[in-house]
Amino acid sequence: MADRIQLEVVTPTGPVVSQEVDIVTAPGVDGEFGVLANHAPFLSTIKIGVMTYKQGNTAEVLMVSGGFCEVSNNKITFLVESAERGREIDVDRALRAKERAEKRLAAAQRKEEAISQTRAEAALQRSLARLKVSQLGK
C-alpha cells in the first residue's frame, strides 16, 4: 500500500473532510500546489478556488474560499471560510450570484455604484468556483 497523508478540512461550522488520501491539490495565493505523503512542512494562504483530493482511483473536489493550510507530520489541515462539494452546490443560485457580481463590477467601473469592487470580485470568484466544482463533482 502506498503512503498516504491525513487530510483535514475544517470550516467555522465544523469538519468537512477527515480521511487519509494519496494526493491533495489546492489553490494557494501564490498558485496551485500539490501535496503527497511525507511532504516537507509548510504554510500557505488559500484563495477561492477548487481543491481536489484523491484516494486510489477516486477523486473528490471541493470549492474552498479563503483560509489557511498547514502541512506537518504527514498531515495537511485546511482552515477555510467555506468548503462545498459539487453535489451540494445549488447551480441556479451560483449562476444568479455570478450575474449579480458581474453587474456590480460593471457598475463599479462606471462609478454608478458605491459597492466595493473587491467584494464584487470575491463574489464573482466564489460563484465561478462553485460552478466549476458543480461540474467536476458529478
How would you summarize what this structure contains?
With 138 residues, the protein is α+β, with helices and mostly antiparallel strands.
Tell me what you see in this structure:
Helices cover 28% and strands 47% of the residues. The protein is α+β, with helices and mostly antiparallel strands and 138 residues long. The protein folds into 2 domains: 5-86, F0F1 ATP synthase delta/epsilon subunit, N-terminal (ATP Synthase, domain 1, Sandwich), CATH 2.60.15; 90-136, Single alpha-helices involved in coiled-coils or other helix-helix interfaces. Strand 6 (49-55) and strand 7 form a beta hairpin. The chain starts with a strand and ends with a helix.
Under CATH at level 1, the class of the largest domain stands as: Mainly Beta
CATH topology of the largest domain: ATP Synthase, domain 1
Counted up, domains total 2
* Rg on CA atoms, Å: 16 Å
**Gross geometry:** elongated
Number of helices: 2
Strand content: over 45%
What order do the SSEs take from the amino end to the carboxyl end, as H and E? Answer: EEEEEEEEHH
Mean pLDDT: 87
Distance between the termini: 28 Å
Helicity, in percent?
25-40%
Largest sheet: 8 strands, mixed
- For this structure, the quaternary state is single chain
In the CATH hierarchy, the architecture of the largest domain is Sandwich
